[in-house]
Amino acid sequence: MPLPWQRSKQDVYLIAGLGNPGVKYARTRHNAGFEVVEKLSGLLSILPQRQKFDALLGEGRVGDRRVILAQPMTYMNESGRAISAIARFYKIPPERILVIYDDIDLPEGKVRIRAKGGPGTHNGMRSIVGALGTQNFPRVRIGVGAPPPQWNLVDYVLGSYPLASRAEMELAFTAGAEAARCFVENGIDIAMNRYNTR
To answer: 127-142 pLDDT, tens per residue?
Structure first.
């Protein structure tokens, strides 16, 4: 077994939370991925603060595994540009790329982990699937609930949570961060078993 300083780039894990940069979009439904990465940053003591590959990056370790936290700065619809650039540079295979994003098909506050799957209606995920050329990468979905019938979808996902929902969403962000750490430590199957039952 190689010593820590002899490990290759294949040991790198990428955890990317999706969102839109800027104060205008902070704490909106579409920025759930950003908020989970911020929680994870605290758990792992890895601060995303370096701008590279059209993303805000932080690097650190979970045990003997190198971890990169990323918040793409490309705006949601071009998230794949940043994710694919990071993956190519660090030679990270799809199974070690965990993407965290908001999902209108899940009830508000629910968290679901999957090993792979299609992008659904999420434009950020469509961009990543297209850029990576595969949908076989794990993801953490943070439920933000479906918009009421009279609401425009774009207005809904770019809107903020009602005050009454904020505490529940904070719990979801924390659960998503813990699931991401579990994925790095134990693999996707254990992460799904632990966190999909909540």
So the answer is: 999 999 999 999 999 9
**pLDDT tens-digit series, residues 23-57:** 999 999 999 999 999 999 999 999 999 999 999 99
The amino acid sitting at 123 is N
Asked if residue 83 lies in contact with residue 96, where contact means CB atoms within 8 angstroms, the answer is no
Active site residues: 30
Q: CA quadruple 141, 75, 54, 22: dihedral positive or negative?
A: negative
What letter represents residue 144's amino acid?
V
Give the ranges where the chain is alpha helix by DSSP (H). 32-44, 79-90, 123-132, 153-157, 163-186, 188-195
Token couple for 152: 């425009």
pTM, to two decimals = 0.93
| Alpha-carbon dihedral angle through residues 88, 90, 93, 97, given to the nearest 10 degrees | -100
